[in-house]
Structure formats: structure tokens, C-alpha cells
Amino acid sequence: MKSNAGMDVHTVLDDSPIYRRTSLAVIPALCVAGAFTILLHRNYQAYLSLGPGGLPLNPWGWLISTLVKPLGRETLSTTEYDGADSFESCLGESSSIPYRSGPRPRTGWHFLPQRQLDQIPDEAVKQKLRELMDRLAKEYEKTVAVMPSPHEKVDNALIIRGTPPHKIASDAQSEILHLHASSDFSVHAILSSRDCKLVIERGWGERHPLSGVLGNVPRQFLMVYAPRNDEEFAVVERILKASIEYMTKRHSNS
């Protein structure tokens, strides 16, 4: 009797239109939830693959990096650099800066941290970049100090000694540049507006998506792509020296 009653109950449920509609609704919902979980997992793994930056490499860091994504802006336009200080350049004649060959490197979906995903230099170029940071610190030791980056806090940065000489330097917490020596070997550097325009248009770098959005990330805050060979290394060295010269000197319009 109990067994038959149980079977009758299940039969009634199976034949119920409400039960069938509920089942049909639950199955797609479970599929969507499963697909969404997979996408979140892949997005989290993509964040971890960028390496250390200003945020922790854990779910909290990933969540923050994901939530700020809508605040980012495009990184390649240059009309905003045609303003009052566009006449200033520490790179010299534009004709002396060649166009970078090939396509730009791909960058991560997350921009905290902002990193390139390909065109990573070989170990020989990486070592030259490490040595360049040491050499620049010594060459400009009267105006520059080596300290942990105020922006990313992982790698060391070149910082202005003493009082920042102009507003952009002050807004940037006196940070001039830092090498991403623990990940892709690109560089974040601040340049004059004219030099920003040249670097972006010639294919050597791009803006940080939060540049000009957050107070401590001025619109002149660029990511300079990692050099792939000795010829590109020479150009990147010039760009970094121009960054130091711009950030450590007084400017009439700053």
C-alpha cells in the first residue's frame, strides 16, 4: 500500500504541469550558472597570470580589479596632448624616434595591474633592463632616489628627491617610473604631453586606462612596452631618460 501510494505521488508529480514547467526552468538556469562559474574562474585565472601589482593576488584583489574595470578609458588617442604644454619635449626631434615595428602587444583584460600578454623579451634583454634601472639611478642620483613604487608597491621605482618641482610630479606622488621586473618587463613612466603623443603614435606605448581618472594617475602616465631587441632597447632607454628629465625639472606651465 505505502509503495503504491508513493508511486502514485510520483506519478502525480510527473504529470503535473507546474512540475514540468519548474523542471524546464531549472535546467537552463543550472546551465547558465555553470557557464557563468566557468567564466568567472577563467577571469580569475587571467588576473592571477598578470603577476604581482598593486593589488593582492587573491580573490579580493581580483574583485577590486574587476569592479574598477568600468572606470577605465581607451588608451591610444592623443588629441588630449595637444594642450598648453604640448611644445615641451625631452625626447628631442620627433624624427629621431622611429616607429616601432609590428603590432602592439596584447594587454590584459584587467588593468590593475596593467601588463602586456605577449612580446615578452628574452632573458638577455631583461637583464639589460635591470641594469638600466641601476644605471639611471646612479646617473641621476642628485635628483632621483630608488624606493618601492607608490603606485604598485611591488617593484622599485625611481622617485624624485625632495619637493616635487611641478604639479604633475606632485600628483604622481613623486614617482617618475618603475620597471615591472617581476612580470612582463614593461615600464610605467610619466612624460611630457608632447612626448606622450610621440610615444603613443609611434607605437612604443599607451596610456594607463585610469590616467586622468584618478588623481594620482595623471594623463601623462604611460605604459612603455618592453623592448624585444637591442634596437628597441635603445629607444626605450631614451624614453625613460626623457621621463626623468621631465619629472625632475621645473616647467613654466606646471
Structural class: alpha+beta
As for the number of domains, it is: 2
**Beginning-to-end CA distance, first to last residue:** 92 Å
Order of helices and strands: HHHHEEHEEHEEH
**Low-pLDDT runs:** none
Indicate the percent of residues in helices. Answer: 40-55%
Q: Spatial order of the strands in the main sheet?
A: 1-2-3-4-6-5
Radius of gyration: 26 Å
**Strand portion, in percent?**
5-15%
Q: What can be said about the biggest beta sheet?
A: 6 strands, antiparallel
Count of helix runs? 7
- Approximate shape: elongated
Number of strand segments: 6
Transmembrane segments: 22-40
Protein name: Luciferase domain-containing protein
Domain Luciferase: 174-243
Organism: Gloeophyllum trabeum (strain ATCC 11539 / FP-39264 / Madison 617)
Question: What order do the helices and strands come in, and which of them pair?
Answer:
Elements: H1 2-15, H2 17-49, H3 59-67, H4 123-139, E1 144-148, E2 156-160, H5 167-171, E3 175-179, E4 187-190, H6 193-201, E5 205-207, E6 221-224, H7 230-248
Antiparallel strand pairs: 1-2, 2-3, 3-4, 4-6, 5-6
Helix pairs in contact: 4-7
Domain Luciferase: 174-243
Transmembrane segments: 22-40
Protein name: Luciferase domain-containing protein
